[in-house]
Amino acid sequence: MSLSLIRLPLAVTWGLVVLWFLLDVTNLVPGGPFSINWTIPAAAVWLSVVCLRAGRGYGGFLSTALLYTAGVRLLIVLLSVLGKTAGLEGEYFTWGRSALFGLVIPHVVLWPVATFIAGTLIWPVLALAMRRRQVSYRGAAMGVVVILLLVFIGLPYVISTLYTGSVGSRRKAQNAPADYGLTYEDVTLTTSDGLNLAAWYLPNETGRATVVYCHGHLNHRGQMLDQAAFLHENGFRGVLFDFRRHGDSEGDLTTFGYYEWRDVQAAVRYAVDRRGEGEPVILWGISMGAATALLAAAEEPGVDAVIAESSFYAASETLRSDLKRMFGLPTVPFGFLTGTITELRVGIEIDSLDIGRAVSGLRDVPVLLVGGTADRRMPLSNNERLYGQIPGANKEMLVVDGATHGDIWEMGREAYGGKVRQFLQESGFLDDPEPPAGDKPAEETQ
After folding, report:
1. pTM (predicted TM-score)
2. Beta pairing class for 367-372 and 395-400
């Protein structure tokens, strides 16, 4: 029976886990006295020896190992719930903001998969050492094939679905322009490929220009409400919208700007054709929204200026960087595999999402590039290379010291707001040379 085989290793591991829990939650040894990662190969070796001595094959070993893993993970889940309920919450015995992604998926899915992989690699070695030719390796060979499929097909597919927003709920705006004291209208934009996008239109009697705000990847139109309120105070109309597959808009997938530039185009055409205002149109985007704004400016003649915060330079380059930084995966071969699977799933060409190549076609469009020194995902080198690719002299850069990805406005609002005003004034969209109280030009600009 599998239960009799795992009784001793399970008891030893439970004792270590309880000790680990006490040291962790009391902060005597934060994170525990040892790495939990070592329990997987150690248990695989122990159970391999036990099963081989009991005359069990690979299938029997695998069922035993998975039963052992279930027992260990169940105890850790119970201790994590106990720790969080009691307010102890050590470094390991917690799950952050999401119980699904911080507790259920790791312990119910990822750890059993890790056990399967470790056991399948270790069992044949020990079987050969202990029983020589007296054991069949067909099960282990099948396991190796499954591992290869999981690692080189399944893992890139999962990452691709996460990137394209195919799983999980959408983030939606919790605030509305009215919370900022702004008059607004709920409107619907229709893209050239037939999608309906949820949007807010902010009228302004001064009517210096209309600003289209482009939020970041997996975010929503509310992300830039503070920026919209700032420019509304300075006399600008605004359009804030949810990209396709974001917020309340239609669409099943996000494509990092490949099709989203049509969403920006729909917002521009709404301001120009539906509202008939005739004033200039300015794009202000963050991250994916910044890259999409630059793409749209190169495609849409109705764009008169762009403010681009933390844009990527090329989507394929950012994908490779994220694989290494966020998932700890080597770019070879996972960059190619994830990119290829994404292209097949979504129907795009990732290499065509080259913002550097796109901005080289901009003519007479003022561009302000904004970045933070602590932004690891979209480093300042992106802006420096984009700056070099934009033709002409009508371009500027703002660098906010210490700012990370997506928080530049919060960290450097005074400098950021002052630089935006200066940029709009120098570009002919703002006449008043005196900034409102509290705003001043940025110090670190190029």
Report:
1. 0.74
2. parallel
> What would the pLDDT profile of 105-137 be if each residue is shown by its tens digit?
778 887 888 888 888 888 888 887 886 645 555
Sheet holding 305-309, edge to edge: 185-190, 196-202, 237-241, 210-214, 281-286, 305-309, 367-372, 395-400
Q: Return the CATH fold of 177-313+353-426.
A: Rossmann fold (3.40.50)
Helix, strand, or coil (residue 395): strand
All structural domains of the chain with their residue ranges: 2-136, 177-313+353-426
User: Tens of pLDDT along 166-212?
Assistant: 666 789 999 999 999 999 999 999 999 999 999 999 999 888 899 99
Look at residue 394 and give its three-state secondary structure: coil
Q: Which residues have a Cβ under 8 Å from the Cβ of 301 and sit 6 or more positions away? A: none
Q: If you write DSSP's letter for every residue of 329-393 in order, what string do you get?
A: --HHHHHHHHHHHHHHHHT--GGG-BHHHHHTT--S--EEEEEETT-SSS-HHHHHHHHHHS-SS
3-state secondary structure of 47: helix
248, with CB counted inside 10 A (0-12, 13-18, 19+), is: middle
